[in-house]
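quick one before i forget lol
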Amino acid sequence: MDDTALEVQELLKVYESRRRPPVRAVDGMSFSVRRGEIFGLLGPNGAGKTTLLKIVTTLLRPTSGRARVLGFDVVAQPLEVRRRISVVVQESAAEMFLTVRDNLLTFARFHGLRGPEAGRRAEAVMERFRLTPEAARKVQDLSGGYRRRVQVAKMFMVDTPLMFLDEFSTGMDPILKRAVLGYLREEAARGRTIVLTTQVLSEAEELCDDILIMNRGREVARGDLHALKLLHRGLYEVAMTFEQLPVSIETELGRLHPVRMSIDQNTVEVALKADEARVLELVSELARKGHVLKVEVSGASLEDIFIELMKEGEAPRL
């Protein structure tokens, strides 16, 4: 059996306009996703993530190129694709005039799940997503965060092989989001393939087996977290907590042109591009400026790599 869940080949989407130059929202993208993977599609606003997701879920026709879901062409065989996927996009995908419970049951019926089993699954999913108290309320009467919760909950009503999530955690409180991350890992462990977009890079760092970073419709970097960190070897994070914050430390660190810098009370966190010897030298210099309570030096986070890639505009592909 072919191990490929999603295959994209030279995909192009151009938006034409009489008043403005054409926009290449997706510009020749090619990649594949293996079955059972959690695949992260990352990029800034306007990078083309949502457009790409709409094409591979049959919601938008590409200008050229091909995409296949479990071997089925998204243009030539859209019904076969839709039978095998569940989708949460940025726009509301909940039926506003139905109750929370009826939203779940209706979605289950669309995928062939009916009767007592659908009812049992709906009750379990509502309990999981803390929606039981809202079960009889119409979605139009819920807050934006609860509406998003209903959208994501629907994905757990059915067992489609592929799940597509576009900014799935928007509006979720930290406790529920932590639980949903666990649910997604469980689904992947059962063999379900998950393709997600997110701007919360810690989510991607924690969840994703494979990550593709795109900008302006093109691939910028691709690989698992370890490979992406190797791509930007020489990018370090330094965190130092002082008994009393040295005067003018912010100005001094600014001269180093850090990728990222933050100061919270007496703790300084800075990400910078330098060789290891220079980083250790910097830590020693800072330690001489005040009494240091704690020092941590580590490799770059996904957030730091992402910021650096966006500055560069285009990076080598892995």
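fyi The first strand starts at residue 4 and ends at 15.
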